[in-house]
Amino acid sequence: MHDKTKLLIVDDEETLRSLIKHELEEHGFVVAEAESGDRAIEILKAEHYKLVILDIRMPGITGLDVLKKIREEDLADKVIMLTGVDELKIARDSLQLGANDFLTKPYEFQNLLASIDRVFKE
How much is the pTM? Predict the structure, then answer.
């Protein structure tokens, strides 16, 4: 179902990015990574992605700032925000800014897959 769907994972935590990338590639996704909001915007301006999995809290440009840029310039089709449990209000705000879904960390990989399926059915 997801063969060759291009995703971008944006998170400043390298271990988490690598883990998500590996698991999603095993499910047929083509996955790129960005370690910061600035790098994500560079990548998205160079190439369009079907989905961005975007951490809210990062040094420099926040995930919410990246989300605004994605929506203003139509840089990706769908966005799933990743957030810490203490940031639920921010996560809800991200939905108003155009995010398609959000997940709280830590989360089960199956929940991420379910979220991806949900946003592509919208």
Answer: 0.91
Token pair belonging to 72: 């203003």
Buried b (16+ CB within 10 A) or exposed e, 8-47: bbbbbeeeebeebbeebeeeebebbbbbbbebbbebbeee
Amino acid identity, position 122:
E
User: Measured between alpha carbons, how far is residue 100 from residues 22, 53, 56 in Å?
Assistant: 23, 10, 14
Model pLDDT for residues 12-42, shown as the tens digit of each residue: 999 989 999 999 999 999 999 999 999 999 9
What percent of the chain is modeled with pLDDT above 90? 69
**Nearest-CA neighbor of 45 among 34, 56, 58?**
34
Tokens of 83: 């957030």
Q: What is the pLDDT of residues 38-75, one digit of tens each?
A: 999 999 999 999 999 999 888 899 999 999 999 999 99
Residue type present at position 43:
I
What is the CATH code of the structural domain delimited by 6-121? 3.40.50.2300
